[in-house]
Amino acid sequence: MTAYTATVTVRLKNGVLDPEAETTKRALERLGFEVDGLRSADRFEVDLDAESADVAATRADEMAQRLLANPTIHDYDVSVAER
Amino acid sequence: MTAYTATVTVRLKNGVLDPEAETTKRALERLGFEVDGLRSADRFEVDLDAESADVAATRADEMAQRLLANPTIHDYDVSVAER
């Protein structure tokens, strides 16, 4: 078993309203920054043990499907690195 | 001017309690996953125009310091890519 960290990034699908990002963008503009667009995402770094990086990625994918992401409104991607 | 996307990742400093991550970890364990640790972070993807990647990174760094991160409890990092 090897120790891995799987990073799951969960973002809203295109077309889903993101009021948090809209508020953040406007706050940056009030501070004087020019911003063309802003998207927010959640990032989960999950430490887990697995036989291989592929197994770790598959397990993190399952975590995303079952809990971390809502497939109706979210896209996600998974990347794995040794710890 | 070139169009860039700056990605600002904001995470809690070591030692700062993260109840959201703790709850997520426990929920994954209830679903049968073995998890050694879990950290959550916020990710902002900021579209901006700048003279160079260095200028874009400097501007995103300022955004993090002034709004996106709270230096008392957060660490952050910035990466920049052409759009």
UniProtKB/TrEMBL annotation, chains A, B:
Entry keywords, A to Z: ATP-binding, Cytoplasm, Ligase, Nucleotide-binding, Purine biosynthesis
Catalysed reactions, semicolon-separated: N(2)-formyl-N(1)-(5-phospho-beta-D-ribosyl)glycinamide + L-glutamine + ATP + H2O = 2-formamido-N(1)-(5-O-phospho-beta-D-ribosyl)acetamidine + L-glutamate + ADP + phosphate + H(+)
CC terms in the record's Gene Ontology section: cytoplasm
Localisation per UniProt entry: Cytoplasm
EC numbers: 6.3.5.3
GO BP annotations listed: 'de novo' IMP biosynthetic process
Gene Ontology molecular function: ATP binding; phosphoribosylformylglycinamidine synthase activity
Pathway participation: Purine metabolism; IMP biosynthesis via de novo pathway; 5-amino-1-(5-phospho-D-ribosyl)imidazole from N(2)-formyl-N(1)-(5-phospho-D-ribosyl)glycinamide: step 1/2
Class of enzymatic activity (EC top level): ligase
One Pfam short name: PurS
Main location: cytoplasm
Family: Belongs to the PurS family.
Main function: Part of the phosphoribosylformylglycinamidine synthase complex involved in the purines biosynthetic pathway. Catalyzes the ATP-dependent conversion of formylglycinamide ribonucleotide (FGAR) and glutamine to yield formylglycinamidine ribonucleotide (FGAM) and glutamate. The FGAM synthase complex is composed of three subunits. PurQ produces an ammonia molecule by converting glutamine to glutamate. PurL transfers the ammonia molecule to FGAR to form FGAM in an ATP-dependent manner.
Record's protein name: Phosphoribosylformylglycinamidine synthase subunit PurS
Origin species: Halomarina salina
